[in-house]
Design goal:
alpha+beta; Glutaredoxin; Glutathione S-transferase Yfyf (Class Pi), Chain A, domain 2; 2 domains; globular; binds glutathione
Length: 201
Amino acid sequence: MKLLYSTTSPYVRKVRMFILYAGLQNDIEESLVNPFESSDLKDTNPLGKIPVLIDGDLTLYESGLICEYLDERYVAKGNSSLFLKNTPDYFPVQMLHVKANGIIDAAVATLLENRRVDAEQSRSMLDKWYGIIRRSIETLDASNLMPAEHANIGTLSLAAALGYLDFRFDEYGWRNWNKDLEVWFADFDQFSWFTDTKPFI
Ligand SMILES: N[C@@H](CCC(=O)N[C@@H](CS)C(=O)NCC(=O)O)C(=O)O
């Protein structure tokens, strides 16, 4: 399988953490792509986005779907689903995944808006996205989250979201919004699947 990736995308990081956590790295060859510059990418993914996973004739885009595909491999090797399929925690974990994606979407939109040179930046949109990120973090109950060593699709996505805030929006100081979440997140630094996927330019 081949993964089109970048070193900065939080969506890609979710997939790369999933791969390392699930021990699937030997099945995957990585190919570096800049989605904002590559014209070839659109031939593979008409949406022009990464991550993309190519497995023979099958091309998958959308980070959650790619993880779900990889989860089947992980389960086929005798492990429990990282989507917690067929368990009572399935929907709560998908909700965490959705919330983490919402934080990532708002943070990526903020970055792109801040980089706009063709028009004046929209204060109201920037305020809206900041509100989404802040509210989402303030309302997360860290006591309901599985610890880093027992990761699932929700906690991996949240780790990608918080890691992205540290990378691009250090000035927000999100840790002041939720001290319990700060403590929960600190544990991730013990794991190579987290540290080896940290974003860099
Ligand atoms: N919902 C998609 C979002 C993917 C996405 O927006 N990726 C960004 C990189 S952070 C991208 O490729 N952007 C290129 C563009 O929007 O032109 C996913 O979860 O995979």
